[in-house]
Amino acid sequence: MVRNKASSKKQQKRGVDFKKIKRKIGRKLPPPNNATSTEIKSKAIILPEQSVASEKAGLAVSKKGLTLKELLQQTSHHNPKVRKDALIGIRDLFLKYPAELKLHKYAVMEKLRERISDNDRVVRETLYQLLKSVVFPGCKEDNQGPFISMMMAYIFNAMTHLAVDVRLMAFKFFDLVVQHYPPSFSLYAEKILQNYEDILQKNQFYLQDKGKLKNALAGLVRCLTLLPCNTREVVSSFEENLAGQRVLHAFEPDLPKDPAGM
User: Fold this and answer.
1) Label partner for 34 (CA 20 to 30 A): which of 26, 112, 140, 260?
2) Do 157 and 105 lie in a common domain?
3) Do 98 and 151 share a structural domain?
4) Is 169 in contact with 129 (CB distance < 8 Å)?
5) Does 206 score more than 60 pLDDT?
6) pTM exceeds 0.70
């Protein structure tokens, strides 16, 4: 008994390490002091007239609601279908808003000329039809010299492309330029004829390229008809040569006849 009393006195002197708090049943426990709040509070920001349609109000847009700037950006897209659709959208926009072409023709040509050497055949054909049906007819009343010079560097680059299909299409583009601006051939005649000579000498055409080569040569014929030529001088020189031949025949010395031929 004496030992038990002594041990209980020692425990009272040491004190209690953890004091147990008695909670009443049914009462909610308070959060601990180191608890982290996980509540998320958000507020809605309402901006009136903050929509794509309102931003494009009053601007010229295509059937798909794209502006000219957006369409020109899409002409450099990595997907050929997107590039083709962008060219079609530009055509539709210019047909609906012809004034846009006159206002932005240099910016338009600066982007369109990049597609002359496009790797996709459909994109090149779409560009050709766009230039033929919309761009060139819409700019025929303006000074086309600077406008055409922007294209020529890219056409010459395409004429030396590794792909034969791209090279032949480049001559088709140049033929289109000559049709709408004939002085362009006289400005670049030497370089054009040299490229024609190169493509004919290399003879790298497959059977399916023969028709395209024929179209390219048709453009060459058109270019040759634009060369300056004085018809009267040609006719007079021809008549002089013909008269000279007659004189030579008239004064041809008589040769002794071969007895065996008698």
Assistant:
1) 26
2) no
3) no
4) no
5) no
6) no
